């Protein structure tokens, strides 16, 4: 069971850092137009888009939806591990 837990942890940690780097790239607008920026956008935007629809930016510019998305991702990882512990 610990192998499954470690695989889940690694996959969710990779996606967590992908989201984090994508958000940090927003501070440097030209970076998002590189190959890496476009690739991260294609992988991360489908997950972030529903959160951006639900949570409007604060003060017109500060987008907190990635923080909520990362929190939900952590809960999803913990929930997936607990469900797998139940069945295995």
Automatic annotation (TrEMBL):
<protein>
    <submittedName>
        <fullName>Membrane protein YlmG</fullName>
    </submittedName>
</protein>
<dbReference type="InterPro" id="IPR003425">
    <property type="entry name" value="CCB3/YggT"/>
</dbReference>
<feature type="transmembrane region" description="Helical">
    <location>
        <begin position="64"/>
        <end position="87"/>
    </location>
</feature>
<comment type="similarity">
    <text>Belongs to the YggT family.</text>
</comment>
<keyword id="KW-0472">Membrane</keyword>
<keyword id="KW-0812">Transmembrane</keyword>
<keyword id="KW-1133">Transmembrane helix</keyword>
<feature type="transmembrane region" description="Helical">
    <location>
        <begin position="12"/>
        <end position="29"/>
    </location>
</feature>
<dbReference type="GO" id="GO:0016020">
    <property type="term" value="C:membrane"/>
</dbReference>
<dbReference type="Pfam" id="PF02325">
    <property type="entry name" value="CCB3_YggT"/>
</dbReference>
